[in-house]
## 1
Amino acid sequence: MTSVKVGTQDEEPTGKGTTLPGGGQDGGYQRGLGARQIQMIAIGGAIGTGLFLGAGKAIAKAGPSLILAYAVAGLVIFFIMRALGELLMYRPVSGSFSEYAREFMGPFTGFVTGWTYWLFWVVTGITEVTAAAQYMTYWFDIPQWVSALIFTIILYGVNLISVKVFGELEFWFSMVKVTAIVGMILICIGILTIGFSDAGDTASMGHLWQDGGFFPHGIKGTLMTLQIVMFAFLAVELVGVTAGESKDPEKNLPKAINTVPWRIAVFYIGALIMILSVVSWTKFEAGVSPFVEAFSQMGLQAGAGIVNFVVLTAALSSCNSGMYSTGRMLRDLAANGQGPAVFTRLTRSGTPLFGTTFSAALMLVGVWINYQWPGDAFTYVVSFATISGMWAWIVILICQIRYRAKSDRGELPVSSFRAPGAPWTSWFSLAFLALVIVMMGIDKDTRISLYCAPIWAALLVVAYYLLRARNPDAFRRTPPAKKEGTAEKG
């Protein structure tokens, strides 16, 4: 696959760390992600199988009002990303979420955040690589486990070579998704204006308010889709994990975050408006991609194969991101004494070998479990990804609120990328996420994820106290100025 040399942070040239503005460090990582790659990682993080597949179920539940759900949720996502951006420009560090949680919410919250975000990506990686294997059966009659094994090994190898290779692969994965959506929008515009294809005679913007109205199932139907909508946006925060490996983070990260509104406007709201104008919402159902169904209604049968390829790349993109982030989160935890010390080691190219290997091994176990017992139990585990991913957003918002209060008092440096309207926008976002959790509890299909959360929390509590008893110093709240020697008071 690839030859790697492993060393600790002090043994390798890359391990000394580079001081960043505001006291952050690269922690031994190589700054191999340029502006082009950061932009596409940010774009790709907002486009996944949640849009290509999950939107079908959401359309059936909410009808055209799903457009409004995505608009409001997209605004909240922008507030979350601006809150994250403010923290990143205060102190851009690898493992950002758990680092900020440790600083502003205490060692226990940092411990919980790091391990929960790691679990989120492991679970996501398991589901996505399995989904990718299922998509391969569209063209080839090969066992599902063979495709899953091949994809996992390839992505594992890519993540061990260098962060530049990861960034380049993610760039092209994202390019495929973006091209597919833009192409769909242009085709729909052509049908609405010129009237070609089988849908030309019936296509009309009137589909958005006819066929039962904009809210065919009432406000409740719209609210019940919020969990699906938020799941589609999971991973948009991945740009924060890249902070320690970004070239010129003060320039590239804010630029990527500021593109969130137009990304959501084009890829979600724009795509849905076009699809639901060409094809009535009554034609869509759960389990069927709205893109595939739209192509079918247009009489463009070749579109099904194209969309299958796009969904395949979306799944591989998510699994690729999962391997990238899990290795970094494990190394961050280990570097703070909250995980096995072996996870701190980097290869000569600056990649966390053991953390990535451990996570990839668990993803393979998950594929085997899914192959042996493909029943509802596995689906319930997948639903846990949503609540664990939302935990990272909640932590980001609370940390930003506490950071803003301290910076306003002059206790910490003022960020060069302050979130507009904060802290009120952060409080509004927290209230919205609370609403989503309530709706998850009401919906019997997603309620199981709330049952899993206390079990995971109990395991973390036990692990925390056991580790703290063995190494109390690792769980003391240490200000960045003392820990890194670079941050200064405002």
Note: Confidence is low (pLDDT under 50) at residues 1-26, 481-490.
## 2
Amino acid sequence: MKCFPFYFGEKKDGAKRLQSISGRSNSSTFVEAEMRRSGSELNSMDASDTSTDSFRRSAFPSLSQRPSNLRVFTVPELRTATKSFSRGVMLGEGGFGCVYKGLIKSVDDPSTKIEVAVKQLGRRGIQGHKEWVTEVNVLGIVEHPNLVKLVGYCADDDERGIQRLLVYEYMPNRSVEHHLSSRSETPLPWSRRLKIAQDAARGLTYLHEEMDFQIIFRDFKSSNILLDEQWKAKLSDFGLARLGPSDGLTHVSTAVVGTMGYAAPEYVQTGRLTSKSDVWSYGVFLYELITGRRPIDRNRPKGEQKMLEWIRPYLSDGRKFQIILDPRLERKHLFKSAQKLAVIANKCLVRNPKNRPKMSEVLQMVTQVVESSVSTNPQPPLKSVVASEEASQDTETVNKKITMDQKPDCNWLRMWRPKLLRTCR
């Protein structure tokens, strides 16, 4: 899945080369200084309309301003935890860098160890560093059952220079994207997909509406939704997150970033970002759960490569709707709830962002579908993915961030005209 480039501002000079730092206390001081510096960049407008300069937004709440329980690690500690960053314990690789499974001592009981996922920043310059700072900035101050927990971070130095790493809670059942893939040996049953949709909606609702500031995720997609040992879905990878518009502003103007196939059309075309951009991405994700297909898949026949284009002819006719259902699903008891979920997706995919529902409204609608489905067709839970399977399978798909063309191929977005389905009663 291709990604757009990521920018936190248009400053040509960028950040100065990081000074050599050693020791745990220096690492913490360094991070707090970076929080304060990057906070202004995080909140500044990249490209705004006429009144932008007159609206200076308050600094993004950071570790230096709010209490945080994040642990500060050193490179030697994380080397030991990951067997020297061995490929044998590598969980995946993305635009940020590589992610490894590790074991660290528990704070509550040092004699025991807990499993974690360690993300190591790739050697690709200051842009990745800003994503790292944003992750710490966001996950250091927010906490919710449907957001992946950040355990701690590392901003240490060794013989190769500054090392930037993040340590998360370990999510043994991998990503939703993995289980929707045709390569997965454990396709998600429909009841589990509904619960995932509900969990993801809860996470977005919290970010958008349940704090004294708003966070726009900006890169909501199935590969950024991870599953814990109980199959609870949690949002992850906040490197592209952005503080929502302040009072008096309707949007945030930014460089366009995100993932092809998930980005809202108005954001792609204008760079104007609102929480409704995440709502669009969530609508795409619902159809991903329904169809089992990726939003853009170049390996499919030409007429089926763009999921939203492919499904349109089948939405207005209930008899044709079953054509788009994931063939790996047991269809006997899911048809009605799948149609209802498609109706919710269509509301999220309305062309005018002002007419899309808020995530709290989406959550309410999805919850109704979940409750009606569970009462009529409960299903047993899936078995957890074992570590041996994780080690033997290929690593996660590489989501490299690429420079977006001046004239992106997004005409298909303009063609989207969702039709409401008539659900069976």
Note: DSSP finds 13 helices and twelve strands in the chain.
## 3
Amino acid sequence: MERELRPMDAEQLREHAHKMVDFIADYYKTIENFPVLSQVEPGYLQKLLPDSAPNQPEGLQNVLDDVKSKILPGVTHWQSPNYFAYYPSNSSIAGFLGEMLSAGINMVGFSWITSPAATELEIIVLDWLGKMLKLPEEFLSSGQGGGVIQGTASEAVLVVLLAARDKVLRRVGKDSLKKLVAYGSDQTHSALQKACQIAGVHPENCRLLKTDSSRSYAISPDLLCEAISHDISVGLIPFFLCATVGTTSSTAVDPLLALGKIAKSNGIWFHVDAAYAGSACICPEYRCYIDGVEEADSFNMNAHKWFLTNFDCSALWVKDRNALIQSLSTNPEFLKNKASQANMVVDYKDWQIPLGRRFRSLKLWMVLRLYGVENLQCYIRNHINLAKYFEGLVAGDTRFETTMKIMATN
């Protein structure tokens, strides 16, 4: 008689999950003992694992033993206290618990009807976070805009660039795609260039304006005006501007208010990428770094960078949700339902690239509830104080030179 594969029952789940939680807890307890950067050579794992899957089931303990001896040596330990690359360690117990619960429920929330709580919780927590950042009312769900959780800031800039592209092409005609021009600085994340590639914007029409230390590597409004005027004079169509709050190389902050006014006067979609530094703006003393966001059409920050929320959780707000929906919506027969057709609900499938989506709002909700706004503000402030302390150490060492101040309050 053939072996029957039976689903794991509740008691088996309890037993296995306890073992897994113990394993992860022990990993975190000893994580600082690992070299942060993996020391393995390319192709190392191929030599350690079989070349085909096992015919018979194996025990969880055997698998965990292999994780410890074969997988962990090939891991770069992003949550290590000794990790200083890219952006801060992004995990927390609250975020992890939310991730566990999301995995356990395991629904696919592409439209409201597929799991109403997933859609409605996402609307609520992004309104909460938007209010913490003091975003304009237009970005909240009570108006014509609203928030949505994307996987990454790269996805966020792509969806708003597509919305901006289609909005302008409806006005000037689809044949004008080759004339569209997008703007950023030479410090803007490469996600802008990738979004242009995907959207069909010619590579030479992605303008990355030169910055320098005299402006702390922020975009010069004068330089932007010159570029826009030149492009218009030769028959091109400026349509998208990406400003950054906290660039990758130098945490530069672009002058949002001045850039926003330029964008608005030229009919350009203005996107603010605050993926890294935006989290700091929940503190009133650092909110000034996004002054001018009221001029933006879209705003993005990554909760998975400096907000204790496990990857992936990138919050995007738009002032005009219909611009996204018009660009990204599909409505085949199998997705139709009464609530959607009556426009009574939000269907997040129309605000993103993929159809499927996870219950990501759970982990953000748990971070906000288990820590609270005041503790999250203290967490950010402590990091900034540590950075200032480090800056003082560097400034006191003649081998180094500091050229920018760390999050100076205005």
Note: The domain at 99-368 is CATH 3.40.640.10 (Aspartate Aminotransferase; domain 2).
